[in-house]
Amino acid sequence: MLLTNRTGVKNTRDLLRAFGGLNETYGCTEAEYSGGMNFSARDFPALSTRLPRRRLQELAGLNGMYHLNGLLTVCGQDLVYTPDEAPAQPVTVKNAVADSRKTMVGIGTKILIFPDKVAFDTADGSAAPLGAAWEAGSLSVSFAPCDASGNTYEVKDKGTKEPEHPQDGQLFLKLNEPDKPYSAENTLEVYSEASGNWTVIPLDYCLVTAEGIGAEFRVWDTVTLTGTGAEQAGQWAGLDGDRIVYGVTETTLRLRADPGGEHFYGRLVHNGSSAVWVSMDGTQREEYFPAEGVKAERRVPDLEYLTECDNRVWGCSSSENVIYACKLGDPTNWFSYRGIAADSYAVTVGSDGPFTGAATCMGYALFFKENTLHKLYGSKPSDFQLSSLRCRGVARNAARSLCVLNETLYYLSPDGVMAWDGSIPAKVSAALDAGRLANVKQAVGGALDGRYYLHVSRENEVRLLVYDTERGLWHEEDVCSFEMASTGGQLYLWDGRALWAADPSRETAGQRSEGMEQGVEFALTTGDLGLDSPEERYLSRLTLRLDAACRSRVTVEVSYDGGSWENAAALTVEGPRRNCDLHLVPRRCASLRLRLWGYGQITLRSLAKTFSGAKGNWMELEG
Fold it and tell me: Can you tell which superkingdom this protein's organism belongs to (predicted)?
C-alpha cells in the first residue's frame, strides 16, 4: 500500500478597492456593474451614491433655459431672469415669445432666443426683436436722390451749357444726353462765386421719407427694400434689395444707391395704390402702378442651431445647406456686406444631408451633420476658411447633447457618445449598450465638475447617463433632466415640474435643508464574481465595507450561476456617519452576482473575497 500526501489548498483573500463604472456589455468585470442607478465616481476609487439634489422652485411649461450672468428660463410665453448676484430680484418679461421649444445662445450681455428671433439683455432686463420691419400701407413714401449729408435738390435750369452769369449757389442740371434730360448720365452742378467754378454734386444716396420709417432702424443696418416701384419708374434700377443705412431719423432713411435710370433726377412718391414721379425741375410728371406696397425690413435668417465664436453668432438650419454669421458684435445684422472686416458672412456647403448641430470648441465654429463635421476658422470674412471631415457627427434630434468640457467637445452620434479634442472624434461609450443610444427623440447635455451629463429620450425609455471624463467611467442617475443648463459651477435640471440644483452646497441657501433630498434611492448589479478562481478553489465568504453618511437602508441579493435572486443580507443604519461591514457566506457555485439596493447615502469602500479549497488533503492508495 502506497500513501500519497498532497498539500491542501490554503484559504486566500482578495481585496477589491478600485471600483469601475457602468458596463452594459458582455465584458462587464467584477469591479464594474452591469446595471444600476444613482452611483457616481466622486469618491473614486470608492463607489458612492450621487449627491442629493436641491429642489429650487416649481416650474411648469419650461421651453428652455440658459445661463449668462444669471439663469434665464422660458416658461410658456414669459421670460424669467434670475441674476447671479444674491440681492438682485428676478426679472419677468410677459408675453415676450411664442409658446414653443427654444434654442438660445449668448453674446455679450444678450441672450438670443430662436425661433422667435428675440434678444434678452441681461444688463437691463429688456427683450427686443433682432429683426425690424416697416410697411407703408396707406402712408405716403417718397424716394429722392440726395448727397452724403442727406440734402435733396430742386433745379430750375438745365441745358448742355452752363449759364454765363450764374449766382453763388445756383444749381444747374447739365445735360450730357439732351434727349434724356433726367437720365443719370447727366450731372447736377452748383456754382461757387468764391472759386468761380461749377462743381458736380454727387448724388450717391437715396433719401426715403415716410412717417415712422426710421424708428426701428439704426445707422449701418442692412435694410431690405421691396415694392419701391423705382425700377418701373426708371429710377435706380436696383433700389429694391439689401441696402446699407448711412443716416436715419424718425421719418427718413438715407441709403447708399448708385445713380441709374432715365428718370434719376426726380422724386418718386408712392401712395399705396400708385406711384407718381415728378422731375427735379417740376416740369414732367408720370404715374405708375406698382404691384405691391413699400416694405423695409432688417432680416434675420431662420436658424435652428446656434453658437457664438469670436464675437459673432453663427447658425445653420436643417432646411438649407448654408452657414450664416452675423455682423461682428451685432446679432441684429446678418446681411451686411460693406467689404470690411466687420461684415456678415454666409457660405454654402456641399455635403449631403441636413445639419444636425452647431458648437464652438478650440476657437473653431463647428457645424455637424450625421456623417460630417464642418470647421470654420479665420479672423475676418476675407480669410474665413471652411474645412470638412467625414466622420461620426451629431445624431438627429441630438443637437443639444453638444457640450464642451475641459477643452473637449462631447456629443451623441448615431454610433454612440463621441469626444472631439481638435482632431478626430473618438468614441467614449464603448461600455454602454449602443442600441439604447440609437434613434433618440431627444438628447440634452450638461456639465459639472468634469462630468458630462447626457439625457437620452427614446420611444419607450428615458435615461440620464453621467460620464466622468477624468476617469473614463459611466454611471446612470434617475431622470431629472428634460432640460439642463450649466453655469460652470452648478448644473440646473428640470424634471418636468420643478427646477433642481445638482450640487446644493453651491447655492446661496446651500447649508439649509429646505427642498434638499435627504437620501437617494440607489441600486446596482455587479458583474460576475468568481470567474477568475481556479477549479480547486471556491468563493466561501464575501465582506462588503460600507460607509453610510445618513440614515440608510441597504439590501443585498445574490444570483448563483445566472439563477433567480435570493435575499442574502440587509442593513439599516440610523443617525450620522457610520462604517459598516456586511458579511455573506455564499453557497458553492461557478459564479455569482450581487445586487445592492436601498435608500440613503452610502459609499462602497471595498469588497473582500475569501477563497477556500474545494477539497481537503486526499490520499491515493496504490497496491
Answer: Bacteria
Mean pLDDT for the stretch of residues 545-569: 90
For 501-538, the pLDDT digits (tens) are: 999 888 876 445 568 888 899 999 999 887 666 665 77
Q: Which residues pair with 75 in a beta bridge?
A: 62, 78
Cβ atoms < 10 Å from Cβ of 505: 11
Residue 498 in this model has a pLDDT that exceeds 80: yes
SS (H, E, C) 519-562: CEEEEEEECCECCCCCCCEEEEEEEEEEEECCCEEEEEEEEECC
Q: Tell me the CA distances in angstroms from 377 to 273, 318, 325, 345, 374, one per residue in order.
A: 49, 21, 12, 12, 10
**Residue 79 or 608, more confident:** 79
Residues 191/167, Cβ–Cβ less than 8 Å:
yes
User: Kind of pairing, strands 408-413 and 473-477?
Assistant: unpaired
Q: DSSP letters along 65-87, please?
A: EEESSEEEEEETTEEEEEESSTT
Task: Return all residues near 27 (Cβ < 8 A) that are at least 6 apart.
Answer: none
Per this entry, what is the length of the chain?
623
Do residues 389 and 382 touch, judged by C-beta distance below 8 A?
no
Cβ–Cβ contacts within 10 Å for residue 335, how many? 21
Query: Which distant-in-sequence residues (6+ apart) come within 8 Å of 170 by Cβ?
Result: 157, 163, 190, 191
DSSP per position, 142-162? EEEEE-TT------S-EESS-
Which residues have C-beta within 8 Å of that of residue 509, sequence separation ≥ 6? none
Please say if the pLDDT value at position 173 is more than 60: yes
DSSP H helical segments within 211-317, as ranges?
230-233
d(CA 347, CA 510): 48
**Domain spans of the chain, in order of start:** 12-52+520-613, 56-131, 134-297, 397-506
Per mean pLDDT, which range of 60-69, 83-92, 477-486, 490-499 is the poorest? 83-92
The dotted CATH code for 12-52+520-613 is 2.60.120.260
Q: 10 Å Cβ neighbour count for 427? A: 14
- Rounded to the nearest integer, the mean pLDDT of the chain is 90
Among 448, 397, 394, smallest CA distance to 416 is for 394
Conformation bin of residue 400: beta by default, left when phi > 0, alpha when psi is -120 to 50? alpha
Nearest of 155, 292, 131, 151 to residue 209 by alpha carbon: 151
* CB-based contacts of 429, cutoff 8 Å, min separation 6: 416, 417, 437, 467, 474
Secondary structure letter of residue 506 according to DSSP: G
Question: What is the distance between the alpha carbons of residues 115 and 223, in angstroms, rounded to a whole number?
Answer: 20
Sign (positive or negative) of CA dihedral 331, 333, 337, 339: negative
Give 534's contacts (C-beta < 8 A, 6+ positions apart): none
- Grid cell for residue 219: 445707422
Q: Is the pLDDT of residue 172 over 90?
A: yes
Cell of 226: 421691396
CA distance 496 to 602: 28
CB 465 within 8 A of CB 476: yes
φ and ψ of 281, to 5 deg: -95, 0
526 phi and psi angles, rounded to 5 deg: -75, 170
Angle at 491 between CA 417 and CA 449, to 5 degrees: 70
